[in-house]
MBL fold metallo-hydrolase (Tumidithrix elongata BACA0141), 258 residues
Amino acid sequence: MHLTWLDSNSWSIELGGQHILLDPWLVGSLMFGNAAWLFKSDRKTPRSIPENIDLILLSQGLEDHAHIPTLKRLDRQIPVVASPNAAKVVKELGYTQVTTLAHGETFTLPQQLEIKAVPGSPVGPTAVENGYILRDLVNGTSLYYEPHGYHSPTLKDSAPVDVVITPIIDLKVPLLGAVIKGQKGTLQVAQWLKPQVILPTAAGGDITFEGLLLKFLKAEGGAKEMRSLLAQNGMTTEVIEPTPWERFEVPLAQKSCI
């Protein structure tokens, strides 16, 4: 399994013979509703769009996961697997091969890759977006991704999972509470899935931030705190902080083929 963190929530995943682009933000600014006064993020370094993408995987329909300027730049013929809200976005942009996954549903490339949608982050009063469990059907390695730290107890049925990509910080707004739950939530999901490796996401990268919202956000925790929490609970899971845009092979113990 090879991974590349592309800043923020964006990842390049090489698994099951597929090159997967996950929640890509690759061009332009990142804003919500074009409200730059509220929040805006930009890249410090211009980046090229990765080549030879086999699949786009989208967990949410919000701009920091289904980034419209990026999706407009990508080839509309690339297959997309998406949450129902994200599927609406790419269909409106003209993508021709869109698979919508509700919770519990699975997308499979026979003898290569399986992607299962699991409950993820709540959006609004009723909607719950997707997390994903990806499995390499050749060597059995697996990965779980949820970008806001909302982990469903149903994950217990999928244990063990080798790699967890999720926030390891808490990001709080006064009076509203945590918008990202990365400390206790990550410890809990580690206890459920018993991963070999945890990788943080939603933690910035080679990017800048500005806007009124920054005055109210409060971040707590980090890699040091997470390693301490894991050790206190008798877990040997490794926490790896990837360098943005540097491809690396995840250090995993060998597994038997499934």
Observations:
- Residues 29 and 42 are 5 Å apart (CA to CA).
- Residues 184-193 form the longest helix (10 residues).
